[in-house]
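Example S7 (structure tokens).
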């Protein structure tokens, strides 16, 4: 059996971008779609786990109205805000296949502060699957699909509401 040896760094950097596809929200009609760009820097725990700190920029746009309006009239409103999430990123590969392919579980938890007038704030959580093409080169390619639950504060009906969407991302991992 031939074994190819190549060094792996104990740290990793990841750049990823993707699309947000809105999912129907309880209490509201309408969904928000958008995009996301993330930068993550973290620790590579012997190829068994990748845990890092992430920063991002996300945009969500869409129309919504309240399902159960007290006055009987439903007013349609627009949502067009950005998010600046700061989050913990955890990736746990659980299956290797072929020579350089791995799949695993990804989870994020964090908070998006309001850094300007068009930025919303709130807590967020993500969970999903990722695929890593772990080539012999330093640059690795990754894709992920996650379910996102996001608290948002910039709405017409009350101080807080919750949004859910599916995020599909592609990126590169340097390790």
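Recovered sequence:
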């Amino acid at each position: 059996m031939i074994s190819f040896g190549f060094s792996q760094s104990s740290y990793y950097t990841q750049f990823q971008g993707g699309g947000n596809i809105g999912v129907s929200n309880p209490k509201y009609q309408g969904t928000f779609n958008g995009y996301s760009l993330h930068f993550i820097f973290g620790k590579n725990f012997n190829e068994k786990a990748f845990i890092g700190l992430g920063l991002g920029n996300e945009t969500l746009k869409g129309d919504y109205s309240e399902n159960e309006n007290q006055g009987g009239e439903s007013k349609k409103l627009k949502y067009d805000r950005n998010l600046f999430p700061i989050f913990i990123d955890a990736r746990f590969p659980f299956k290797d296949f072929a020579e350089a392919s791995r799949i695993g579980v990804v989870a994020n938890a964090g908070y998006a502060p309001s850094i300007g007038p068009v930025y919303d704030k709130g807590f967020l959580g993500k969970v999903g699957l990722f695929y890593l093409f772990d080539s012999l080169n330093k640059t690795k390619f990754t894709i992920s699909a996650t379910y996102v639950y996001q608290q948002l504060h910039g709405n017409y009906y009350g101080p807080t509401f919750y949004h859910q969407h599916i995020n599909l991302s592609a990126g590169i991992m340097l390790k």
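Notes on this example. The beta strands are 11-23, 28-29, 33-45, 49-66, 77-83, 86-97, 101-112, 122-133, 139-152, 161-174.
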